[in-house]
Specification:
- With 140 residues, the chain is α+β, with helices and mostly antiparallel strands.
- The protein has one domain: Orthogonal Bundle (Arc Repressor Mutant, subunit A), CATH 1.10.10.10.
- 30% of the residues lie in helices and 15% in strands.
- It has 4 helices and 7 strands.
- Strand 1 and strand 2 form a beta hairpin.
- The longest helix is centred in the middle third of the chain and has 18 residues.
- It is globular.
- The relative contact order is 0.27.
- The C terminus is likely disordered.
Length: 140
């Protein structure tokens, strides 16, 4: 069960040939949070940092509730991709951390994060993640 994540152009997840396109991310906020949680790999991101990234100086009064809603939508999307949303995106001590599973058959190889579009996705309406290009090194 190969998992590929596309961060440039249109954001997308591809698993076993099935593509979940950027339109399924329920808005720009969930897509931006997803991209931020991916990089750098394995590090927790504070709720305060995510809120500042999403709203800047225009932080809503109930920003914690709004952020919970964004993360809930993101978890639902991860479940749609066949991932265990509780294990993939846990929260603890005021932080979120993206814990993507290793590809099937390997416990040491992380999923591919690519800088190209999956088949069937147009290049229009990107979320502005050009600066987030990254491909994890493969391990032997």
């Amino acid at each position: 069960m190969a998992l590929r994540i596309y961060l440039t152009g249109r954001l997308a997840l591809e698993r076993d040939g099935s593509v979940i396109d950027q339109d399924a991310f329920a808005g720009r906020q969930a897509a931006v949070v997803f991209a931020r949680l991916l990089l750098p790999r394995g590090l927790a991101v504070s709720r305060d940092e995510l809120a500042a990234m999403l709203w800047g100086d225009a932080l809503p009064k109930a920003w914690d509730v709004a952020l919970n809603a964004v993360v809930s939508k993101l978890r639902a999307l991860l479940a749609k991709a066949g991932l265990d949303k509780g294990q993939v995106l846990p929260s603890a001590l005021g932080c979120y951390q993206m814990n993507l599973p290793a590809e099937a058959g390997s416990t040491s190889k992380p999923p591919s994060i690519l800088c190209m579009r999956p088949k069937g996705c147009s290049g229009a309406n990107n979320i502005g993640t050009r600066g987030l290009r990254r491909r994890w090194p493969t391990t032997s």
